[in-house]
Amino acid sequence: MTDYWSMVFVFVLATFIGLGVIRRVSRLLYTPLMSLTNAISAIAVVGSIVVAGADYPTTIRLIGAVALFASMTNIVSGFLITDRMLKMFKKQ
Amino acid sequence: MIHAIAQAAAVLATALFIFSLHWMNDPKTARRGVVAGVTGMVIAVGATWIQPEIVHHGWIGLAIVAGFIVGVPLSLVPLTAVPQRTALSHAFGGLAAGLVGTAEYVVGLTENPAQLTTFRTSAIVAEVILGFLTFTGSLMAAGKLQEVKWIPQRPVTYPGQNVVNIGVLALAAALGVLVVLHPTAAWSGQAFYAIVGLAVLFGVLLIIPIGGADMPTVISILNSYAGLSAVAMGFVLDNKLLVTAGALDGSSGLILSIIMCRAMNRSFTNVLFGAFGTVQKTAAIAEQKAWKQETVEGAAQLLEQANLVVVIPGYGMAVAQAQHKVRELYDQLTKRGITVKFAIHPVAGRMPGHMNVLLAEANIPYTALVEMEEINPDMPQCDVALVIGANDVVNPAARYAKGSPIYGMPIIDADKAKTVLAIKRSKNPGFAGIDNELYVQDNTWMLFGDAKAVIGDLVKQLAGGSGLH
C-alpha cells in the first residue's frame, strides 16, 4: 500500500519550490525556460521505461515504447535547443 | 541495494533539476542549468534502467535511438519556428503521459485488479484526461503556428461553443468518476476508452477558437497541463521524482500564464473561452484619418538625427526574419553615437520571450533589451520609436477604448515618442483585427513593405549616405 499522502505532500512542496525558483528566472530567458522545463518534465521517461521494459504483455510494452520515444524526443530536443538559445545571449 | 540506488538517484536528480532552474535567473549562469538538467536526467534514466524489474531492453534502446533521431533535427529548427517546436514538445509530453496512463489502466484491468485503488484510478483518469487533451490541444496550437493549411488560422467560433466544450469535458469527468467508483466493472474498459476519446476531442475544441495573438498565453497554459499530467503520472507510478519534476514544469507554466494574462489584461477563462478578435467591428478610426507614408531616405534622416531610438519589435519581425537586418541597423546607429534600445512587450511574438531570443540570435547584446515597464517612463524622451511588425502592443486604444478587445492591456507608449516610424507589411489590421490609431497620429510616419526589405534599405541608405545630407 503506497503512502499517497506523502506523494501529495511532495507535490505541494515541489510546487512551492517551483513557484519560488521560476519567479526569479530572468525575463529575457522565458523561451529557453520553457524548453528547459519541458525537457525536465520529460523525466516521465522513467515511467515509460518501466512500462516498456517490465514483464508486461506485448501490446502494453509497445504503448510504453511509443511513450518512451515521445519523452526521449523531448529530452533530446529540449536540452539541445535550450543550450543553443542560451549560447546566443551575450552581454556585448 | 539496487532499489536504494534508484532512490538516491531520484534525490540527486531532483536537486539537480532545481539547480538547473535556479541558474536560469541570469543569462551568465543559464548554460550551467542545462548541464545540471542533463546530468540529472542521465542519472535518473540510468538508475531506472538497471532496476531488476526491467527485463526487456530491446525496445527501450530502440525508442531512445528513435528519440535522438527525431529530437536532434527538432532542436535545429530556425528560431522563428521555436513556438511551434515548443507546442509540439508539449504534445509529446501529453502523449507520453496519456499512453502510460492507458497502459497502467489496462494492466490493472487485465492482470492485477487490486492495483486499481480509488486513489490510483483517480490519478490514472486525471493523467489520461490531462495527457490527451494536452496532446491534441498542443498539436492544434503547433499546426496554427506553423500555418498548416487545413487548420484555420483565424479563430473558429459558433453559437453554443462554450456549452459544447464544457459539456465534453464534463462528460469525460463524469465517466472518470464512474470508472473510479467501479474500476473493474464489465463496462469500465469501454468507459475508459470513451474518456480517452473525449479528452482527445476536447483538446481540439479548446484550441479552435483561439487566435494567434493569444498564443503566448495558450502555450503557457498547455505547458502547465503537460507538467500536471507528469505529476499525475508520478502519482500513478508512485514516483516522487516524477511528481517533483512535473510540479516544477507545472508551476513554470502557471507563472508564465499569469504573466501573459496580465500583459493582456485578461483572465485564463477569457483566453480559453473568449474567442479573441472575432466580431469587434468598432468604429473604424483609420477611416477618419489617413496614413502618412515616409520614404526610406526620409526615415533614414530621422533616425540619424535622433539621440535615442527605441525599437519595438513584434511578430512581424519574426515572420519577415528581419532580426539580422535589425542588427545591422543597430550597428549603423550605435556607430553614430545614437542610443538604441529595444522595448520588449511580454506578449510580443507568439510565445513568452520570443523577441528576446530572436534579437539575441542576431547578436544584439541583451543589455539593450528593455522590458515594457522600464522603457515606458523614457518614451517621452525618445526621438524615434521604430515599430517593426508590432501592432496591438502599441495600440493606444488599449488605454481608453472600452469596447475594444484589447482595452486595459498594458502597452508600450510608442505614441508618446517625438516621432514614430512604423514598418508594416500591409494596410490590413493586425492579428486581433483591430484598427490602430497610432498609425494615423500626427507624428507617425509609415513605411509599408516587408520588414526585412525595408530595414535592409534603411541600412543601405545609412551606410551609403554617411550622414551628409
Task: Produce a short descriptive summary.
Chain A has helices at residues 4-23, 30-41, 45-53, 58-88. By secondary structure, chain A is mostly helical.
Q: How would you portray this structure in words?
A:
The complex is a heterodimer of chains A (92) and B (469). Chain A has 92 residues and is mostly helical. Chain A has a domain of 62 residues. Chain A is built from 4 helices and no strands. In chain A, helix 2 packs antiparallel against helix 4 and helix 3 packs antiparallel against helix 4. The longest helix of chain A is centred in the last third of the chain and has 31 residues. The termini of chain A are far apart. With 469 residues, chain B is α/β, with parallel strands linked by helices. Chain B folds into 3 domains: 76 residues; 191 residues, no CATH class; 180 residues, TPP-binding domain (Rossmann fold). Chain B has 18 helices and 6 strands. In chain B, strands 3-2-1-4-5-6 form a 6-stranded parallel beta sheet. Chain B is elongated, with a radius of gyration of 25 Å. Chains A and B meet through helix 1, helix 2, helix 3 and helix 4 of A and helix 1, helix 2, helix 3, helix 4 and helix 8 of B.
Shape of chain A: flat
What order do the helices and strands of chain A follow?
Answer: HHHH
What portion of residues of chain B belong to β-strands?
A: 5-15%
Number of domains of chain B: 3
Give the beta-strand count of chain B: 6
Rounded average pLDDT of chain A? 93
Radius of gyration of chain B, whole Å: 25 Å
- Give the strand order, joined by hyphens, for the main sheet of chain B: 3-2-1-4-5-6
Main sheet specs of chain B: 6 strands, parallel
Rg on CA atoms of chain A, Å? 17 Å
What is the quaternary state of this protein? Answer: heterodimer
Give the termini distance of chain A in whole angstroms: 57 Å
Largest sheet of chain A: none
Strand-pairing-aware structural class of chain A: mainly alpha
Q: Report the uncertain regions of chain A.
A: none
Q: Beta-sheet strand percentage of chain A?
A: under 5%
Task: Supply the helix-strand structural class of chain B.
Answer: alpha/beta
Residue share in helix of chain A: over 70%
Distance between the termini of chain B: 80 Å
| Spatial shape of chain B | elongated
